[in-house]
Amino acid sequence: MKLLMHICCGPCTIYPLKALRTHGHDVTGLFYNPNIHPYLEYSRRKQSLQDYAEKILLNVIWPEGYLLEEFLRQVASRPEDRCAYCLSDRLRFTAQQAKKENYDAFTTTLLYSRYQKHDLIHQLGESLSQQLGIHFHYQDFRSGWNEGVKLSKDLGMYRQPYCGCIYSEKERFYK
Fold first, then answer.
1. Residue 69 contacts residue 58 (beta carbons within 8 Å)
2. In the chain, at which end, N or C, are there fewer CB atoms within 10 A of the end residue's CB?
3. pLDDT in tens, 65-105
4. Any idea what the CATH number is for the domain that residue 51 is in?
5. Which of 104, 122, 142 is nearest to 16 (CA)?
6. In degrees to the nearest 10, what's the CA dihedral of 51, 8, 30, 105?
């Protein structure tokens, strides 16, 4: 299957990509993450993925721009709903790109993290699949969490200390 995979960062790519390639899928990555703040954090995650993608011969699509203002405009009045918006926005963008570029399906590395809202990601992916007419490839990659963490550390990859948005960074320090 020709698959477009939304990628949040380099470390979260390791296990899902391995699992998908093991099953014979032709995977292209897509780095679309307007939720990541500040810009220095965004740049670190992007660079980490670029370095890893070169090592493992992964083609990645890098949309132009850094849509900080749009993300904030959408979540500022209801920060408690930010995760649903963030997940929906990134999955929608990926699904639209997959449809436009004639991929067989789309998926996301967000299905790898133990910290993400897995059921919501699955639900949003299925809903977008129906709305846009492109298959959502659901796979629970969390079983490979420890393997991915170990490999990312062995490779010396930058490992981010929070989800990505300014709200999650605040939660990290301000309890």
1. no
2. C
3. 888 888 888 777 787 777 788 899 999 999 999 999 999 99
4. 3.40.50.620
5. 142
6. 130
